[in-house]
Amino acid sequence: MEDKTLVKIENLTKNFISKKSFFGKPLSYVHAVDNVSLDIFKGETLGIVGESGCGKSTLGRSILRLTEPTSGKVIYDKTDLVSLSKEDMRQMRKRLQLVFQDPYASLNPRMTVKDLIKAPLDVFNIGNESERMEKVFQIMKQVGLTEEQLNRYPHEFSGGQRQRIVIARAIILDPEFVVCDEPVSALDVSVRSQVLNLLNTLQKEKNLTYMFISHDLSVVKYISDRIAVMYLGRVVELAEKDELYSHAAHPYTKALLSAVPIAEVGRKREISVLEGDVPSPINPPKGCYFNTRCPYADERCRKEKPELRDIGCGHMCACHKV
Amino acid sequence: MSNEILEVKGLKTVFTGKKGKVTAVDKISFSVEKGKCLCIVGESGCGKSITSLSILRLIPKTTGTIEEGEILFDGVDILKLDEDGIRKIRGNKISMIFQDSMTGLNPVMTIGKQVIEAIKVHSPNIDKKELEKKALSILTDVGIPEPAKRMKEYPHQLSGGMRQRVMIAMALSAGNNELLIADEPTTALDVTIQAQILKLMNNLKNENNTSIILITHDMGVVAEMADYVMVMYAGKEMEYADAKSLFESPLHPYTSGLLKSIPKLSTNPNEELFTISGSVPSLTDMPKGCRFSTRCSETCKKCFEKEPPLFDLNGHKVRCWKYEERTNGR
């Protein structure tokens, strides 16, 4: 298994300072990502699901060091990304890319499509001008943009097309690993499926590895091979997709899955509506973070923190009750 | 038909901008029965929110006008009422829940004050003690834990789900609601919280016999809530049917395309997802015939020449030339 691993995340933690004393001494922290360990295999899509504020985006950004992690390791190709120097990390970024959620905010409105897609090649000084342009043409064709659109500005495009530009820009350097942070959440249903199909085709053509962050469970199921469920900064369950959807073990995963509305009429679902809200990540509850909302919680859950352990065939779950 | 609480006939809402007139809602007709839920579905820009704002006459006067149509609420045409008349209905008999609960609430007023204010507007003669009692009971009804404590708090101290509950509480505050219009009430919320809010709205419908117009783009939510569904596309209603027949046998190519393009939990991941090619045409640049003709895979010559009327197939209405013969045959 070891040689299949592309990215190995070990005890990654990110705390944000939420309050400082008068002299700048931190008083309280937001525990955004709390001791997360994950392996991402070559060529797979690892889905990360969870509700807002559970730390899934911060996890993605910490892996790429777009926010500096507080502690932990991210081992990629035998090197620890967290300890790399700034310049070494910069070189490494050729192989690690990110697709952002909002295609309206992530494109510079003053740059033409050509410049936007070419920018990574310029930054890393790859090839001469004509080679670069050739590469741009090739990528644009791959993501379904036409040559006439070359000199247009982002505002002339619809959301779906903008997301195609964002994807083109992310894959032009032929990266190995792409973090997709809610790439289709801002798109309309009829356009969403176009972008999902594109991501799937590109993965096959270029043998990409995706980390796909989303709150939409049906999208994640469609695109992922394995799925990690996060709650309050911790991974509570990790399994092969089919295993997760058919035999969810953690009570939170079960509740999450049952809460997804299904676009079929007359199918009576067993809804286990969760009580209450997600606790604050500044002051997480003791023991299992889910114990305040869990219907099965007992004394042990309130005291002891459950570790993520294997419950068979790579299905990992962090719950005392399983 | 006295069973209908709201009947909209040929509503046309027009906005005037720099580039001229834009018809956001183009002569649509529909009705809502008592104690039933109508879901309006469509993509962004299809006019679903404008339809709901038109019903409450909340279209900004400086740019938009309702050019044509009738909106009959309990037999009275809302569009003909004067400002006083509409105020008696707005928030009292018809209430509205907006999408974004943070902008819907006043950030510098406590929750309690806002709810009390909403009650006071509609029943000005109640004394202060009574008001507080009533606010407390409404907040308890919508499932807010520790309502007495929450009443003293400000909107930013509450979570998204909690704020949406407060919005619903304010919408219900008049007490004699007959119609509730909810514009994407759960879009900004997480799925577990969404399930809570939908459950709450379902209770309202069943217990108080309130009619609901629910505006959403999520087909899953529609399946959960709707008795009737109206599918809108570029300002027109494309299909109108009861929820069961819409999901089981969608007639319009747009509806069936929408349903097919959603990845379901049961979709086989090796299959490519169905896509509707292209994107929604701009309202200033509508195709000549059917509005969907530029993206439709089942077009014929007629589709590009003339806009189809709404064909009625036993109550299942659809705006597509494909069904012309089936209605004529009957």
From TrEMBL, chain B:
Which segments constitute the ABC transporter domain?
A: 6-259
Q: Which InterPro entries match?
A: AAA+_ATPase, ABC_Ni/Peptide_Import, ABC_transporter-like_ATP-bd, ABC_transporter-like_CS, Oligopep_ABC_C, P-loop_NTPase
SUPFAM superfamilies attached here? P-loop containing nucleoside triphosphate hydrolases
Gene Ontology BP terms:
peptide transport
Q: Any idea which UniProt keywords this protein has?
A: ATP-binding, Cell membrane, Membrane, Nucleotide-binding, Transport
Superkingdom of this protein's organism: Bacteria
Where the protein is mainly located, per its record? membrane
Membrane topology reported for the UniProt record: Peripheral membrane protein
- Where in the cell? Cell inner membrane
| CDD domains listed in its UniProt record | ABC_NikE_OppD_transporters (cd03257)
Q: Which GO terms describe its molecular function?
A: ATP binding; ATP hydrolysis activity
GO CC terms: plasma membrane
Annotated family:
Belongs to the ABC transporter superfamily.
* PANTHER family, A to Z: DIPEPTIDE TRANSPORT ATP-BINDING PROTEIN DPPD, OLIGOPEPTIDE TRANSPORT ATP-BINDING PROTEIN APPD
Q: What is this protein called?
A: ABC transporter ATP-binding protein
